[in-house]
Amino acid sequence: MQAKMDIIHISAECYPVAKAGGLGDVVGSLPRFQNELGHHSKVLMPMYRTPYLYAHDWEVVHKASTNLGHWWFDYTVIKEKTNVQGFELFLIDINGLLDREKVYGYEDDTERFSAFQIAAVHWMNTWNALPQVVHVHDHHAALVPFMMQHCYAFKRLQYIPTVLTIHNAQYQGSFSWEKTLYIPQWDSWKRGLLEWKGSINPLASGIKCSWKVTTVSNSYLHELRHMSNGLEPLFEYEKGKCTGILNGIDYTVWNPENDKYLTEHFSVQDAEAGKEKNKGILCERFGLDPQKPLFIFIGRLVGEKGADLLPQAIADSFKFIGRKMNFLVLGNGNAATESQLTMLQSIAQADYNVFIGYDETLSHQMYAGADFLVMPSRVEPCGLNQLYAMRYGTIPVVRSTGGLKDTVIDVGDPGGYGITYNDATVGDITHGIYRAVSLYNQKEIFRSIREKIMDLDFSWHRSAAEYVSLYQSFQ
Ligand code: ADP
Ligand code: GLC
Q1: Which of 111, 113, 260, 458 could bond to 140 as cystine, CB 3.0-4.6 Å?
Q2: What CATH superfamily is the domain 271-454?
Q3: Distance from Cα 357 to the centre of ligand 1, integer Å
Q4: Are 365 and 389 in contact (CB under 8 A)?
């Protein structure tokens, strides 16, 4: 029996408390699976004004004051009383700074997440029993390892092992040296551990200071050495401490047999009928034809996801393949892409629809009712959509990059079950759609692939255990 470990995850997101993307899903489930392995894993995140906050009971566990540069602030740590998520959940409340409706997107995000991290470390510094691992996620928490090791006030924490998981290296949280006072009094010989290309770069600092760095797939880790928004040499230099650990998915939330967002449940045994019912509901709501294969896209409408290529790829599919399929898009983000996708409705009419916005319920209904999921990502550190889609019997049509490369094997290759293409271009996407329509018309093969993907195992058990063995390498 392995020794029980105390682990704290520090993150800006955690589903269902607050989620902007896959980071929330991961931090909302990984700790529970670590606890199931017999460890004591908990989560610390900012207190936003989300519906979750009002729907649960909280107790105050700590109150204190500290400072962000010249600004003194009070913070309160509250804990969800019942551990309903399967782990202890702590929120840091900083009045006026963190308690907003959205997770990100404010002008003072640098101040918000700097203050959050200072309060996190300030609070941990008061604990009698220190954790065995501090596991931080993405740039919003990536200054924590530096603060623990090189800020004079927190020296007590300096020997605690730290792990940084990079879910997305595009965003690094850089800010100018003019804000150097945002880091509590620190050893100025260590300036190099904060800096990257002339700025304070939290993600780069996390990579330099964490004991281990993980990325959410192996292929993404290799890609980062060639393409990581300026950090390429750092990933090359630090490769010895980096590992790729593929995300899992939480089958207690993502299961077509009992998904709380679906009215028509199904399993692999009755997938054909179950998916048909779900498709019928979707097509009715969005004015689409259930006889045709239904392609969906769900995600942030940003360049990384290749969302800007969708309007042309959809228009070209109609032009070159014919009106043989339906498309339904759910997403929000880039204003130009949003408006192109909206305008496409007038030319595509009955074979296309779009929902601009974020809608958790609709996303589940779409995974359940669709035949194919299109994911033309330029960058995809892991990607959860394709894993959810497969669980719900929806075949992924993806660009082979990052986590998509590690989880989707092309039907043309041995053991394959998806459709892949090499480039994030309109031509490659359209060709992928063409292959998918042909597959749809080969009913027997289509059905057997659908059954196969529903049975693939991408559960958290394997990944949660991999993280634990990484932590155990510190002992
Ligand atoms: P990323 O974190 O880069 O956005 P992932 O594939 O890891 O990409 O995770 C995206 C998560 O966010 C999935 O759970 C997906 O269903 C969800 N999602 C993305 N956009 C939307 C949206 N507009 N409405 C509902 N869910 C969405
Ligand atoms: C990021 C990535 C995505 C990954 C998610 C969870 O947002 O863009 O690919 O699945 O984090 O790790």
Answers
A1: 113
A2: Glycogen Phosphorylase B; (3.40.50.2000)
A3: 11
A4: no
Tokens for 259, please give them: 């998904």
**Chain region(s) in the chain for CATH 3.40.50.2000:** 6-248+460-472, 271-454
Atom of ligand 2 nearest to the CA of 247: 12
Sign of dihedral through CA atoms 169, 170, 172, 174? positive
For domain 6-248+460-472, the CATH superfamily is Glycogen Phosphorylase B; (3.40.50.2000)
* Nearest CA, atom 4, ligand 1: 21
In angstroms, the CA 11 to CA 26 distance is: 10
pTM for the model stands at 0.95
**Which ligand is nearest to the Cα of residue 169, counting in written order?**
2
Could you tell me which residues are beta bridge partners of residue 418? 410
CA of 72 to the centre of ligand 1 (A): 36
pLDDT, averaged per 10 consecutive residues of the chain (475 residues), comes to 88 96 96 97 98 97 98 98 98 97 96 98 98 98 98 98 98 97 97 98 98 98 97 97 96 96 98 98 97 97 97 96 97 97 88 96 98 98 98 98 98 97 98 98 97 96 95 92
What SS3 state is found at 105?
Answer: coil
